[in-house]
Amino acid sequence: MIPAYPGGHALLEGKVVVVTASAGAGIGQAAARRCLEEGAQVVISDTHQRRLDETLEALKAEHGDSVAAAACNVTVEDDVLRLIDTAVDTFGRLDVMINNAGLGGTKSLLEMTDEEWTRVLDVTLNGTFRCTRAAVKQMVAQGGGGAVVNNSSVIGWRAQAGQAHYAAAKAGVMALTRCAALDVAEHGIRINAVAPSLAMHPHLVKVTSDELLAQLTQREAFGRYAEPWEVANVMVFLASDYASYLTGEVVSVSSQRA
């Protein structure tokens, strides 16, 4: 069935959205806030209970009972299933899954351990797989329809020293997005991804030197990094019916050549 033109209302009005890694001040919280502003009911999640509680309190002050929370470690299947159940138990269904959880770092391949490689892959790629699988199973059980938005990175396309594990994980997210989209297209479910170039958030500050941040910022056409809400805006678009003909796509959120 061809969807109706979605104009004339909030982009996510009546939708139930889950956002992983959405505590703190990064892209995840920005995505949760933008979804709420566009009329959605949102379940936020994170591994850090204190930050999750603080974020829930702040969002509830703005949006009341339209927001709920569930702690989730995306490397643990039971946590992922519990997160999906929280959305269904609280709001009755699941319409949009935003997979924001990821883990990076800078380490030369010459010095990288198996544990360091595996940890980044398990959170960033395997976690996205687990959450996507759980979400689309729920969407199919509801009768189909829905959207998944994955957070990848332009580093999945281009080389950067010290980023072999992160780049491999993000390239994997891109490939997962494209292939999974074909698996669920018959059910009316769309799966797309964003690929930011440089978006400022607390974790990036912790794992990146001032010198490297300055170099990366200089490459941007606007001479600055993206604010988290600028990435979140594209996520909201991909989650909305305005993107009804997009699936298996990776959208670069960048002010430079991807």
Search tags:
single chain; 258 residues; alpha/beta; Rossmann fold; 7 strands; 46% helix; 14% strand; globular
Describe this structure in words.
The chain has 258 residues and is of the alpha/beta class. It is 46% helix and 14% strand. The chain has a 7-stranded parallel β-sheet with strand order 3-2-1-4-5-6-7, with helices on both faces. Helix 3 runs parallel beside helix 4 (114-141). It is globular, with a radius of gyration of 17 Å. The mean pLDDT is 91.
Here the CATH topology equals Rossmann fold
The gyration radius over C-alpha positions equals 17 Å
Q: How many individual helices?
A: 8
CATH superfamily: NAD(P)-binding Rossmann-like Domain
State which percent range the strand residues make up: 5-15%
CATH class: Alpha Beta
Question: Could you name the ranges where pLDDT drops below 50 across 5 or more consecutive residues?
Answer: none
Tell me how many strands there are.
7
Give the name of the CATH architecture.
Answer: 3-Layer(aba) Sandwich
Order of H and E elements: EHEHEHEHEHEHHHE
**Neighbour order of strands in the largest sheet:** 3-2-1-4-5-6-7
End-to-end Cα distance, whole Å, is 35 Å
**Secondary structure: helix percent:** 40-55%
Approximate shape: globular
| Overall domain count | 1
Structural class determined from secondary elements: alpha/beta
